[in-house]
Amino acid sequence: MCRSADGSVLLTRGSDAGAFPGVWSLPGGGIDHGEHPDDTVVREFAEETGHAVRITGVRTVLADLARLPDDSIEHTDRILYDVEVTGGTLRHEAVGTSDLAEWVTPADVAARPLLPFTAGALGVAFDAAFDSAGLAFDSAGLAFDAAPTPERPGRVQRFGAYAHATDPDGRILLTRIAAGYPGGGMWHLAGGGTDFGETPEQALARELYEETSQRGRITGLIGVSHRYDPSALGPEGVPLDWHTIRVVYHVTVGEPTVAAVTEAAGGSTAEAAWFTPEQAGDLPLTELARDALSRSG
Questions:
Q1: Could you tell me the domains of the chain?
Q2: pTM for this predicted structure
Q3: d(CA 246, CA 222)
Q4: ∠ CA(163), CA(167), CA(255), 5° rounding?
Q5: Which of 218, 200, 215 lies closest to 160 in space, CA to CA?
Q6: What are the Nudix hydrolase domain coordinates in residue numbering (predicted)?
């Protein structure tokens, strides 16, 4: 989301090379393997509009399903940033999935055919007439590009949602990673990958209960990060070229119970427990858990 002083928003139009030609969207695109999401939005913005930008905040995280022209269903997890222009000159993308870039006034936005997530971000009612082209959108995993072998790690990219969960007494909820998984034996935030068709919030609620037996309420978005490990070892020692994009929420568990793992045996979580901040500071913590606890003091 990039706005000018008069309130206009910078939008790009889908080209014939993309899935939705003629439809307008916020600038952006897919995260390359191993790339931080922050770097992705800066790179994609420059490619599609000619402008260099600076991130000023994370607006929201969401997901949607789309029926593509070949009748397949695509799940997309999206991170929406606020950015401001720091340089460059407005231009159209020469070869790519967009063919126009324009500053669109608030009065003109609703007259454009918009992708649903863009319409929602701009406060424009989604026009069901857009579905007349045979496309269906609904609000709402793991993505392997090849089967892994000992000689060639499988490239894996995962989008996950995690909870910095606390109770009314200020205790912190953590999970211990099972042996045989990356980070085995370390204490981690509850959470995990989004399933097909899930929003990040739905995935987090499911993972929180499966890993800790707790139910909580999301009270804020802490931030977005990633981890790239091209030589990770998965279950049974299978090599993985591993890239995970992670969204961390603050979650309040108003009525805590004894933490216990409810998912089937053999999963990635060995145990779950509540800790005081002092106790948590003495644990072997994953980088994600350390960062979340550090941000909260």
A1: 9-139 (3.90.79.10), 143-295 (3.90.79.10)
A2: 0.84
A3: 11
A4: 105
A5: 200
A6: 1-130, 154-297
